[in-house]
Amino acid sequence: MNTGYLSRFLASFAILAASVASAQDAGSPRPPDPPAGMVEQPCLPTLMPPASVRSLLIELFIDPRKLTSADFDRLMKDREFAEFNQASQLRARQDWAGSCRFRSANDSAAGASPRVVFMGDSITENWGMADPGLFEHGALNRGISGQTTPQMLVRFRSDVIALEPRIVHILAGTNDVAGNTGPNRPQDFKNNIMSMAELARAHGMHVILGSIPPAASFNWRPQLKPVPRIRELNQWLREYASRNGLDYVDYYSVLAGPNGELKPELSNDGVHPNRSGYRLMRKLVEQKISSGKPR
Prior knowledge:
By secondary structure, the protein is α/β, with parallel strands linked by helices. It contains 12 helices and 5 strands. The chain has 2 domains: 3-94, no CATH class; 103-290, Rossmann fold. Helix 1 (3-17) packs across helix 4 (79-94) and helix 7 (149-159) packs parallel to helix 9 (186-202). The N and C termini lie far apart (49 Å). The radius of gyration is 18 Å and the shape is globular. The protein has helices spanning 3-17, 51-62, 69-76, 79-94, 103-109, 122-130, 149-159, 174-178, 186-202, 227-244, 251-255, 275-290, and strands at residues 116-120, 139-143, 167-171, 206-210, 247-249. The longest helix has 18 residues, at 227-244. Helix content is 47%, strand content 8%.
């Protein structure tokens, strides 16, 4: 696939996927005008993706395949995709941290005390499409595509602490390395991870930290060479977890090829696992969840 095509393709996918997996409320693909100022209800109704768009994303990114320029053309020419993608971008601009994304779902889950909450970005988000069975029986998905750790930290209280889970699984870092919300230092990433972990432990949760999955390049940031940085941060995550009595899940080792790439048979785009990749990840995380320390 032409790299320019692929860059735009993945950028559109990242924005759209943020509202796909857990959208619940039907409505127009174009949002109404947002409320102004400090109000009791700042959130617009959750967008409901067209079934055809969800099916297309699963076909292109979740079911194992090799993406081609024909896939890009098919997606870009889809009218429902274009409308929903535009509406998703508008909402993202008015809600930087994604605080509204799960507000309705969190209200519905109040008092239920889930067993585990998965906090993360698109790799967590897409897991719900690839393996919905994982997010049953007390497991909640709170991933938002494209997010960095400062965004997750802002919404951590409402999307994790308020739900009172026994365990929180934090999987983040790909978008920090890519600089999705601007340039940042490795220490900034570490500070945000430590803050989320400390907040969770202060509220009696067991913390599971997932390694950053491998990626040889980011098509939306082609100038970056992320392999050394991902390895460096994963080493820190492992050591931090060990020092503080947290669990660490080494997804990297099972997903990575010899040069730090995400194995092509486990990913359609080199960044996000496909169904085969998530199958391996589930085996690892279920071991940690089953042995998670009680509250």
